[in-house]
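Please describe our next protein:
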Amino acid sequence: MTLRAYARLAAAAFWLAGCFVCYSIARPIGRESRWVRRFMRGIGGLLGLRVTIEGRPKPGHVLYVANHISWLDILALGGASEARFIAKDEIARWPLVGSLARLGGTVFVSRERRGATRVQADAVAAALGEGRPVALFAEGGTGDPSFVRPFRPALFASAVEAGTPVQPVAIDYGPDRARYAWPDGMSFADEAKRMLNRAEPVPVTLRFLPPLDPATLDRKALAAQSHAGISSALV
């Protein structure tokens, strides 16, 4: 790794330590999510993220639905809101990352186990009722940044059951988005090293689109309209 990467790692360690102390103090009074947001925004800044926000993020009880290009998406969206994320359960077992995800309130779901859809939907619906936004990358993983893959409608049922608005979010890295995409088959460690070594800033725009009402749309319609809105916003 380069000297730049080691400097970023050292700065990230100091930032993590400081935020963890503040998080621990704020947790008994229910204010810890603010420090999760500050931690993500700070780490994103260390990695060169330059975030522009268009539209108005809906606070509180809302399901953010976004396209997924890079693991930087989590830092960008998490630093711009107090959202907790939905992630595959294997991430909970990753060293350090899994522990940080749990502290941030991540909702872990199994995408491989058959018959688990009902349990997953209940877990997400419960999270939606706790007052913080919940963020879903509805493509099911990162992929080709040149288009938005079809959204999986299963977890949209959680918003319908909880009566929670769905707000599509288009994550746009601009015409050079392919440079920031997580290459297929690359491990998290190698991808993190690639980003730590990167010299130039990483511009990203978060476009918060008008919320959708689950009282008038079923899960399939919510998925289809979210996909259409995000695809249009990325053109």
